[in-house]
Design goal:
Radius of gyration of chain A: 21 Å
GO cellular component, one term (chains A, B): cytosol
Distance between the termini of chain A: 33 Å
Pfam family, one (chains A, B): HTH_24
Helix content of chain A: 25-40%
GO molecular function, one term (chains A, B): sequence-specific DNA binding
Oligomer: homodimer
Largest sheet of chain A: 4 strands, antiparallel
Strand order of the largest sheet of chain A: 3-4-2-5
Number of helices of chain A: 5
Largest interface: A-B, 72 and 71 residues
Organism (chains A, B): Sinosporangium siamense
Protein name (chains A, B): AsnC family transcriptional regulator
Structural class of chain A: alpha+beta
DNA sequence: ACTGAAAAATTTTTGGG
DNA sequence: CCCAAAAATTTTTCAGT
């Protein structure tokens, strides 16, 4: 896998901060011409570095105020593990991560109420033949931040002297 | 909190699927005029239902191929709990959720390597005076899906007869 | 790869029902 | 809250370096 270079990285960062930023603004921020950034963005899209764009939604406002993480474990460990396939019709599941550790997947889900969560858990257990462990989210101080590679280094000016 | 009505919900869903969809396309999909959808989108933004827009990034390509969930617990339970504040300067932390259960927060992080994760854990423990429990993500079958309220009901045509 | 500029399309404003 | 149309801006294409 190749390394995304400086100016492309800047474009990706800007679009992560504002997915609708115009090419005009991207050009101004990067010092390139409009057509140059345009070309770069299209290339980043084609190469899959930019996978798409989305809006950030207030889930309280649309009637899904409850978030939870559900860890799942197969009841029959010898059965083929196709849980993601079996669960993907459940639209409440925002994400599905395969993980190391005692359980096999972590799901992030959004539901309308405790009863909605209960029903979802039943559907998950039935669909994938798994046991579940649920962690309810109480609040979310922050989310959807953009991790920048090499930003958290401790001693950045060590080799200046 | 008021209820987002049908057509606004459709707009939100469309923009969740494609955050750069044009007003022209939104108008066609909703059957409204361009200015009507424009007005509605601006209102949804002002009311905070649409919180913003972002690009979906391939973290492998930008040098952050490793994802993990880190659960944290205060070492001194009597100290004031300002962990989110103390941690938010760490850009590797994509999200911070306060949760019910044995631990107090779940962090989602992106790092470049196992060593990067080790260093991040040290920084987290030092900055927030917490113990950590880490679950490494092996792969992500899906992510960033948009949960649609009322999509997972089992018996939808029960009261038709 | 980048630039500048023309052409095409979209966004935003305006005026009015 | 809705539409239609004008005005402003952006996106997209393209010839040239």
């Amino acid at each position: 896998m190749w390394r995304v270079e400086e100016i492309d990285r800047r474009i990706v960062t800007l679009l992560a901060r504002d997915g609708r930023m115009s090419f005009t603004d991207l050009a101004r921020e990067t010092g390139l011409s409009v057509s140059a950034v345009h070309q770069r963005v299209r290339r980043l899209e084609k190469r899959g570095v930019l996978r798409g764009y989305t809006s950030l939604v207030d889930y309280d406002a649309i009637g899904l105020p409850m978030t939870a993480f559900i860890s799942i474990k197969p009841i029959d460990p010898s059965a083929p593990d196709d849980a993601p396939e079996r669960l993907k019709h459940l639209s409440a599941i925002e994400a599905c991560h395969s993980v190391a550790g005692d359980e096999s997947y972590i799901l992030k889900v959004r539901v309308s109420s405790p009863i909605g969560l209960e029903e979802l858990l039943q559907q998950i257990r039935a669909a994938a033949n798994v046991s579940t462990r649920t962690t309810v989210v109480l609040s979310t101080p922050y989310e959807h931040r953009f991790p920048v590679p090499g930003e958290d280094e401790d001693a950045e000016e060590a080799d200046k002297a």
